[in-house]
Specification:
402 residues; alpha/beta; Urease, subunit C, domain 1; TIM Barrel; 2 domains; 9-stranded mixed β-sheet; 6-stranded parallel β-sheet; globular
Length: 402
């Protein structure tokens, strides 16, 4: 079946096409056109003057809708995918927390099953293991009971257990972390720097040995540090100096407007990916919640639009959805809509190695499409040619039966 999406402003990585048309067939983009082109026998979706953009790609997300990927059930995976699709996310990377090896193995097994069942939400791109190889001093909301140094016997067992691991975050200054990064590079897995007290020399060595991404820049990492009266550059400064990609939690709370602007000014949209880092409280009312699995997760409180530890000494993950991130970059950070969408789609697709098939509206790519208004309120989300969410109340109408 062919689908024609017309009467909207089509956003490509390079320009905005007013009154453009996107044609979809068999889950792929057949063409992107100026004007209302004729497409015989196509079902037609009228975008009613709204924006037609590539779907958002969240490469770091823990949960939403009251569920967490560490809950250990297929239902949790599927409900999270459905929740985030409502806000424009068309692909995501399920992310774990620091945990025992057995819990990580179980999560990988559940992912395999859930991935086969997932047809009504954002697509899965593979698993992100966040930890357990972190600096205890920068643990943030990660459970200190499970933090440890890289153990070859352990990570080799995990790597052998599943082929679904696509990224792994670790602190590069730990004993064994460089060999760990080299091993990930050999396996084609993205190695990321996270929860770390590293100095510039540590980051440089990590960069030379496979680490290419900085996980949630500014959160749980070192900045300029004084040691024996001398100043040393930390991970934050290293991220700016080196050709590392960075991801930022764009909820407007983890990073206020001046820092959002600074990251964009220095790293640019081509090197910066937006992430939600959302926990189970995304899309839920404020109040008490749990970070991680319901079995042994950490109790947290959701207030002021963010999750916090009960003593309020640290944030405990965001409760953002992706529309909020794009909205903040445009209205808080004064970034152009085209660049904000690039940070939400093209850049994360490249970072995760799926840029050939996702991340922009171009012929031959997956038909991952989101329609939203000037306030970045989502009207429709399409994943690989399937409409998985539509909201008629905010101006979306269709001439088809979709």
């Amino acid at each position: 079946m062919k689908i024609k999406i017309t009467n909207g402003t089509v956003l490509t990585p390079f320009r905005a096409i007013k009154n453009g048309t996107v044609v979809v067939e068999d889950g792929k983009i057949l063409g992107v056109h100026e004007g209302n082109v004729e497409v015989p026998d196509a079902e037609e979706i009228d975008a009613q003057g709204l924006y037609i953009a590539p779907g958002f790609i969240d490469i770091h997300v823990h949960g939403g809708g009251g569920f967490d990927f560490m809950d250990g059930t297929e239902e949790a995976f599927l409900k999270i995918a459905q929740l985030h699709a409502q806000y424009g996310t068309t692909a995501l990377v399920p992310t774990t927390l620091t945990a025992e090896k057995e819990d990580l193995l179980q999560t990988l097994d559940v992912y395999e099953n859930a991935n086969r069942l997932n047809t009504s939400g954002a697509a899965f791109l593979g698993i992100h293991l966040e930890g357990p190889y972190f600096a205890l001093s920068q643990r943030g909301a990660q459970d200190p009971r499970y933090i440890r140094n890289p153990d070859p016997a352990e990570y080799e067992e995990i790597l052998a257990h599943s082929s679904s691991i696509v990224r792994w975050s670790a602190a590069p200054e730990l004993d064994g972390a460089i060999a760990f990064g080299q091993r990930l590079r050999q396996k084609g897995i993205l190695a990321a720097i996270a929860h770390t007290d590293a100095f510039y020399d540590d980051v440089l060595e990590a960069y030379e040995n496979g680490y290419s991404l900085v996980t949630h820049l500014y959160s749980a990492m070192s900045g300029v540090t004084r040691k024996n009266a001398f100043r040393y550059a930390g991970v934050i400064e290293s991220a700016y100096l080196l050709d590392l990609d960075v991801e930022i939690i764009g909820d407007g709370i983890h990073l206020p407007a001046p820092l959002l602007k600074l990251v964009h000014k220095i790293k640019g949209a081509d090197r910066t990916a937006l992430i939600t880092d959302a926990m189970r409280g995304a899309g839920m009312p404020e109040g008490e919640s749990t970070l991680g699995s319901l079995k042994n997760g950490l109790k947290v409180i959701i207030e002021d639009g963010v999750a916090k530890l009960p003593d309020r000494t640290s944030f405990a993950g965001s409760v953002a959805t992706f529309d909020r991130l794009v909205r903040n970059m445009v209205f808080m950070a004064d970034v152009s809509l085209l660049e904000a969408v690039k940070m939400a789609s093209t850049t994360p697709a490249r970072i995760m190695g799926v840029g050939e098939k996702k991340g922009s509206l171009a012929k031959g790519k997956d038909a991952d499409i989101v329609i939203f208004d000037k306030d970045i309120t989502v009207s429709m989300t399409m994943v690989e040619g399937r409409v998985v969410y539509s909201n008629y109340q905010v101006g979306f109408k269709t001439k088809s039966t979709i």
